[in-house]
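Lecture notes, continued. The same structure-token format from the folding unit now serves as the input rather than the output. Read the line below as a description of shape only.
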């Protein structure tokens, strides 16, 4: 950007909206949407309605709910997990928003699970996240979950930068999350 234009730019910082305001904004954007769907998006977005719009339009929020149910299940369904990650990890520019949504959602899940395992309070996950978080806390220690979170953030950026098959990256991660780690 030329310096003359840059000198006229201003950075305006907004604080995050509370969940009630987020619900109100999303309800105005989608007046015909189901109230439960609006509630889930308001919780997931963390006060950023633009993030909620991106998660909804890319389908990442729906995939996230399926991912949480698969991770909370009593038995590993590799076929369903592979189908989910194929949809969630679409390649090329057309799948970028979905991949970004996958990273955002799994980052959130792993962060909440690590905090819950270490005794965190007042985290307010969605109902469908709670079951997955409980299952992850049973399978892994707080330190393991924190390491998964850290590795996921580094590896997802690397996979995206190297144009690797993101669906396979996600499948490996979700399979690893499903398996119990030894103490």
């Amino acid at each position: 950007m030329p310096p003359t234009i840059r000198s006229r730019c201003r950075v305006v910082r907004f604080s995050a909206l509370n969940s009630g305001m987020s619900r109100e904004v999303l309800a105005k954007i989608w007046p015909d949407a189901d109230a439960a769907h609006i509630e889930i998006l308001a919780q997931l977005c963390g006060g950023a309605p633009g993030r909620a719009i991106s998660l909804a339009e890319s389908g990442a929020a729906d995939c996230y709910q399926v991912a949480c149910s698969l991770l909370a299940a009593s038995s590993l369904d590799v076929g369903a997990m592979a189908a989910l990650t194929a949809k969630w990890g679409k390649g090329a520019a057309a799948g970028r928003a979905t991949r970004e949504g996958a990273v955002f959602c799994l980052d959130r899940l792993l962060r909440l699970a690590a905090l819950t395992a270490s005794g965190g309070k007042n985290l307010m996950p969605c109902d469908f996240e709670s079951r997955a978080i409980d299952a992850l806390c049973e399978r892994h220690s707080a330190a393991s979950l924190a390491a998964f979170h850290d590795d996921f953030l580094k590896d997802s950026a690397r996979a995206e930068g190297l144009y690797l098959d993101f669906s396979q990256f996600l499948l490996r991660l979700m399979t690893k999350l499903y398996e119990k780690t030894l103490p």
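Point for the exam: The chain has a mean pLDDT of 91.
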